[in-house]
Amino acid sequence: MDWKSIANDYPYQERVIKAQQAQQKLAKKAGQGIFRQQYHFMAPGGWLNDPNGCIWYQGQYHLYYQHNPFDSVWGEMYWGHAVSKDLVHWQHLPIALVPSESYEDHPRGGVFSGSTISKDNALIAAYTATTFQGNQHLQTQCLARSTDGGLSFEKFAMNPVITSPPAGVSADIRDPRILRHGDRWYIVLGASLGAGAWSHGEGCALLYESADMLHWKYRGVIARSGGKLGTMWECVDLYPLNGQWVLSFSPMFLGDSKTVCLTGTMDFQNACFSWHTRSELDWGTEYYAPQSIADGCGRTIVMAWQNAWDWMPWWQDFGPVSSEGWCGCMALPRSISLDQNGRIISAPVEELKTLRSNEQKTGWITVDGQPRELPCADPVAFEMEIKIDLQHTQSKIVYIDLRSNGDKKSRLIIDLDNKQLTFDRHHADNGFVKGMRTCNLPIEGNMLDLRIFSDTISIEVFAAGGLCCMSNLIYPTHQDQQCQIYSEGGISQVNITIWQIARLL
Ligand code: FRU
C-alpha cells in the first residue's frame, strides 16, 4: 500500500508544530476561564466539536476530535487527540491529523469528521477532506495510517479514495464510518439526496465496499429519510448492538431531534438497512454527532459533542465561553444497550462513580408544594439520583430547581400526568440561554428514576432507566447556587442521593 510518509515532510511537521503551539497559547487563557467544565472532556484550548475516530485500541480509549487549535471558533479543522484507560481521566496528546494536502486546504474545512479502525498493526483513519469547488466545499473521503499507536498519521498517496458523490447525491457527503464485516471493509457515509442539505434534500446513508481498503465500490443507499428524517445525515454510525444493528446519525433540519438511532437489520449483501424502532439518544439542546466504541469489556460506549449547531448565532458569536480561549466539550461517556423493544438505553459509564464523594441521602421523604432544599456539598459539580415512588405519589408534576438563587434557576419539570420531561432554562443565566426542551418520559412501572449530572456549564439528565436523556448547556454566574424540589397537585414520595463530583480540571 502506498502511504505518503510524513517523517521528512517539513511542511507537514511545521503545521503540526504551529498547531500545537497555537493550542498551548490558547490553553493558558482557557485555564483561567470561569466557565471551564470540571469533569467533562475539553480540549486544552481552542475549538472542539465532533468526536472522531473513537476507538478502543491497544488497551486504551482513543478520542480524536474536530479541533481548531488556532481559535476558539469553528474554522479550519484538525483532529485533536486524547487517550484514557477509564473514560474519566484523559491524557492530552499532540494533534494527530492536520490538513496538509491540496484536497484538504479549505480554510473553513480542512480535515472533517471520520472514524478509525485497526488493521495489520496499524490504525487507519477514514475522514472527509474539504477543498474548494468554486466557492463551495468539495467533500471527498480520504485515508490516513498511524503505525505509532495512533499518535501521528501519514496520508494515503492515492487520496481521495472516494472522489465524488454518486448520481443523485448532492455535494454534502461526509463523515465516513469505516467498519469490517465478513471479509470486506465498508464505509458508511452521511449524505443528502436531491436538492441538498440546505434545501429540500433527503438525508440518507450510503454504503461503500472494499476488499483491500484502498479501492472502494459504491453499493447504494442503505437508508433514507423519506421526507421524515431530515435533509442531510451528519456523522452516521453503524454498529451491532445486542444482536441487532443500530444506524445512528445527526439529522439536519429535524427540529429537536438531533441524534436519531434506528434499530433493525443490516443486509450488507444487498446494501439495505431495515429498521423497526426509532429512538433518540438525547432530547436536549446540546448533544450531537455521537460515535460508538466497542470496548475491551464488551460494552458499547457512546461519545458525543455536548453542543449542536442550532443555538449558535453563526459566524458572529460562538457563545459566552469562546472569549475564554476555548469552546466545546464532550458529553459524559455513555454505555448503551437495547431494551426488549429495541429502544436505546443509555447509562453514564460506571467508571464515573469513582468521582463521587460526600454522599448525602434524604431517605424517603414526602414532598409537597413547599420548596424543599436539597443538600449539595458542591453547588456546581454534583450528581443527584432521584427515585419517585409512583404508588405513593398523588402529585401531577414534580419540579426540581437546579443551580438556583432567587429568580435564577434551571428547572426540571417531571410531568407525571402527561408523561413528559421538560428542561426549562429561561432563567438559567444572565439571558444567554433561553427556551425549554420537552420530550416524552416513558413511565413504565411504579418507580421513576432520574440521574442528574451538573457541571460548570451543563446539566445532563438520564431518566426512566436511561430511555430518556437530556443534555443542556447553561452559563450561570450567580452566587450561592442551590437545588430545591417541590410538587404540584398533591404530595410525592421521593428518595434522593447527592454526591459531590471530583473537579478534575
Ligand atoms: C457535524 C459536522 C460534520 C463535519 C464537522 C465539521 O457537527 O458538521 O458533518 O464533518 O462537523 O467540523
Describe this structure in words.
- By secondary structure, the protein is mainly beta.
- The chain is 4% helix and 52% strand.
- It contains 1 helix and 34 strands.
- The strands form 7 sheets. A 6-stranded antiparallel β-sheet has the order 23-34-25-30-31-32, with no helix packed on it. The protein has a 6-stranded antiparallel β-sheet with strand order 24-33-26-27-28-29, with no helix packed on it. The chain has a 5-stranded antiparallel β-sheet with strand order 1-9-8-7-6, with no helix packed on it.
- A hairpin with a 7-residue loop joins strand 8 and strand 9 (154-156).
- The protein is globular, with a radius of gyration of 23 Å.
- The two termini are 42 Å apart.
Summarize this structure as a short list of keywords or feature phrases.
1 helix; mainly beta; 4% helix; binds beta-D-fructofuranose; 505 residues; six-stranded antiparallel β-sheet; globular
